[in-house]
Design a protein that fits this description.
alpha+beta
Length: 454
């Protein structure tokens, strides 16, 4: 459309320039057959018969002419049939303007009048030229109006529907499938627009079905995760109970063995059996604990996807962080600095999940001791949990908190994992108004938590 407007403007400018050039070039007098000798004869006769100009009738022949005195007053006129009478406006200036031939009447070296020949052919030429210019201007205006009307028609009937379909395609690409494609009834692309709108409706229905299926899938995962926690808890309780009974039996047996023969083969076999049984129970407990962590992470991730994840913040003493560390440090390798005595605003249950995931990751992939340091930074309590393993590559420090992402070292190791631990920790910190960031330190790897102060 822009190109059409440029073409229309260019045509209009060129057309106007053409009319102006034509008017300038055609502004010349037409060639006439005026006989200069005849003008001289009429002038000479007028000089000789200035007091009786009626005698000029026989001199002028078929040429119209006027005789004026020195003041411009009309003394005589000779008009041929069909010639316009210019008596009321004829003078030397008029003759010069219309390029009429004229000559002064001189008597005794004084101008006593003037003879003006009326050029009928020149008059016709000028009238024709004027009418032609007016016609060209009127025709140009009509052409320009026609072009404007045609451009309006093209804009409304062709370009506007195409632009609307273009915008419609953009909305569909953005996923805005609830906005229909509206067109006029007399739109020439009605069949196409109707097909496009049908396509939009089908895409909207398809997306709705897909979203419903995804929601059902996530709800199913959430339900399964919740249901799995019950038997896992039962396994852990049974393992703890069996382990406690074995420890109690070991104490009784030790007392009895002091009274009996300690070197009997039966006691040795029974002791080995119990030790092996205790190891098996420890493995059961550890596996159940791993399953519990994985299910908790999966459950939390699913609730976050469903938009049903909730955080219950409350003001807590900062010393609660030490309790959380001790609760999750099953290897007793974590060394803590003194915790500044402040109030922090956290969800205690979720904070336990955050710290637990970080410590489990450190023991799983680094296998070293852990140092936990605290300090106050602005409106946050910074908690730095650091191991002394190999760390991760610099390019992965921003990626390992993404969902289901596992670092190259973790993927190459034999350690099992889902890639949810640090992701869940980051999400939980953000929902509590804090922040989690990962840093490589020489040596080791550090996870820094910014915990909001009350």
């Amino acid at each position: 459309m822009k190109k059409y407007i440029i073409v229309m403007i260019t045509f209009s400018v060129l057309y106007i320039l053409g009319v102006i050039i034509f008017a300038a070039v055609s502004n010349i007098s037409s060639e006439t057959d005026v006989d200069t000798l005849l003008l001289n004869d009429i002038t000479k006769s007028a000089e000789e018969n200035i007091n009786n100009l009626d005698t000029l009738e026989s001199v002028g022949g078929k040429v119209s002419f006027y005789v004026l005195d020195e003041n411009g007053a009309l003394l005589y006129k000779s008009l041929q049939h069909g010639t316009e009478d210019l008596s009321h406006k004829i003078n030397v200036e008029y003759a010069m303007k219309h390029k009429y031939s004229y000559k002064y009447i001189i008597h005794d070296d004084s101008i006593i009048g003037v003879v003006i020949l009326q050029d009928e052919m020149n008059d016709k030429y000028m009238r024709m030229r004027r009418n032609l210019i007016i016609g060209l201007i009127a025709g140009g205006v009509m052409i320009i109006i026609g072009m404007v009307l045609y451009s309006m028609y093209v804009r409304r009937r062709i370009i506007a529907p195409f632009e609307e379909m273009k915008h419609f395609a953009g909305r569909v690409a953005e996923g805005r499938l609830d906005e229909p494609l509206l067109m006029d009834r007399d739109n020439m692309f009605g069949a196409f627009t109707e097909s496009f709108d049908i396509m939009r409706e089908e895409l909207a229905e398809s997306r709705a079905r897909e979203m419903a299926l995804q929601k059902k899938e996530k709800e199913l995962i959430a339900s399964l995760s919740h249901d799995l926690k019950t038997p896992i808890t039962g396994i852990k309780l049974i393992a703890e109970l069996l382990k406690a009974k074995i420890e109690n039996n070991d104490a009784i047996d030790n007392n009895e063995s002091e009274l009996e023969n300690n070197g009997s083969e039966l006691e040795n076999n029974e002791r080995k059996f119990r030790e092996d049984f205790e190891n098996k129970l420890d493995n059961i407990y550890k596996k159940a604990d791993q399953i519990d962590v994985l299910v908790s992470d999966l459950f939390t991730s699913t609730l976050d996807d469903l938009g049903e994840f909730t955080i219950n913040l409350s003001d807590e003493e900062s010393s609660v962080l030490s309790d959380i560390v001790k609760r999750n440090d099953d290897r007793n390798l974590a060394l803590e600095s003194e915790v500044p005595s402040v109030l922090i605003n956290i969800d205690k249950k979720r904070m336990n999940q955050v710290v637990g995931n970080i410590i489990i990751n450190s023991y799983k992939y680094a296998g070293t001791g852990i140092s936990v340091n605290y300090r106050i930074i602005d409106k946050y309590l910074e908690m730095d949990i650091r191991d002394y393993g190999e760390g991760v590559s610099e390019k992965e420090t921003e990626l390992i908190t993404n969902k289901f992402y596992r670092g190259e070292n973790a993927a190459a190791s034999n350690c099992e994992g889902s890639g949810l631990g640090l992701y869940i920790a980051r999400i939980l910190m953000e929902k509590q108004g804090g922040e989690l960031r990962c840093e490589n330190k020489a040596p080791g790897f550090s996870v820094v938590l910014l915990i909001p102060l009350s």
